[in-house]
Amino acid sequence: MGQKINPLGFRLGAIQGHHSIWFAHPKKYSEGLQEDQKIRDCIRNYVQKNMRIFSGVEGIARMEIQKRIDLIQVIIFMGFPKLLIEGGSRRIEELQMNVQKELNWVNRKLNIAITRIGNPYGQPNILAEFIAGQLKNRVSFRKAMKKAIELTEQAGTKGIQVQIAGRIDGKEIARVEWIREGRVPLQTIRAKINYCSYAVRTIYGVLGIKIWIFADDQ
Questions:
Q1: Is 176 left (phi over 0), alpha (psi -120 to 50) or beta?
Q2: Is the domain of 111 the same as that of 23?
Q3: How many C-beta atoms lie closer than 10 Å to residue 94's C-beta?
Q4: C-alpha distances out from residue 83 to 5, 73, 86, Å
Q5: Are residues 26 and 109 in the same domain?
Q6: Whole-Å CA distances, 180 to 123, 153, 210, 214
Q7: Of 94, 97, 102, 134, which is most buried by a Cβ count within 10 Å?
Q8: Rounded to the nearest 5°, which phi and psi values hold at 134?
């Protein structure tokens, strides 16, 4: 049978870099991992609460965390940075205070930077949020998938595969539906594939969205 593997982990060390860069003693490793997750959750919650959501999309593509002894640097890659930048540096300072309060740091400084991404809909996380918003608004899943493919084609990608699983359209029996456009060479390590899995809560239950985007050959 086909063996499935996360495309990002499969390419680590070849063409894919880590999203968290730090060293820890083996006994402290799990603490550092949980800390990373808390930072990411806290930033996402802040964006959801305080921003006027643009077409149902938060616009966070990914977050990179770099840790030193006395400093934690968080770089947020956003497709629509005006969601955070509109309030000027005040918004970012408020976000930093929120994260520091959540994690009770005493001797560590937190620095948050925002980087804009050129083609937001070429990023699977932003695309998954778009599809999730459509499904919550009771749009047909096929329509939502086709619209997502149109958006990625405008972003200039070479191929995309979208998969939705669960009680689609409220049917009693859960099933998996998928659609592919262009090339998605999952076995080629040299191929730059962006991937994400995203859970969306609908009134029928939880649906899982998976997106593979073939960006370029390295």
A1: beta
A2: yes
A3: 13
A4: 34, 20, 6
A5: yes
A6: 16, 12, 12, 11
A7: 134
A8: -65, -45
For the chain, strand residue ranges (E) read: 20-21, 60-67, 71-78, 109-116, 159-166, 175-182, 191-202, 205-217
pLDDT tens, residue by residue, 42-78: 998 888 887 655 555 678 899 999 999 889 999 999 8
CATH number of the domain to which 166 belongs: 3.30.1140.32
Q: Look at residues 112, 53, 118 and name the one whose alpha carbon lies nearest to residue 83.
A: 53
Structure tokens at 109: 């400084």
Domain with 109 in it: 16-116
Residue 212 CA to residue 193 CA, distance in Å, equals 7
Question: According to the model, what pLDDT value does residue 57 have?
Answer: 67
**pTM here?**
0.89
Identify whether residues 160 and 88 lie together within a single domain.
no
Query: Rounded to the nearest 5°, which phi and psi values hold at 102?
Result: -60, -40
- The CATH number given to whatever domain includes residue 84 is 3.30.300.20
pLDDT at 104: 83
**6 part of a folded domain:** no
211, amino acid identity: I
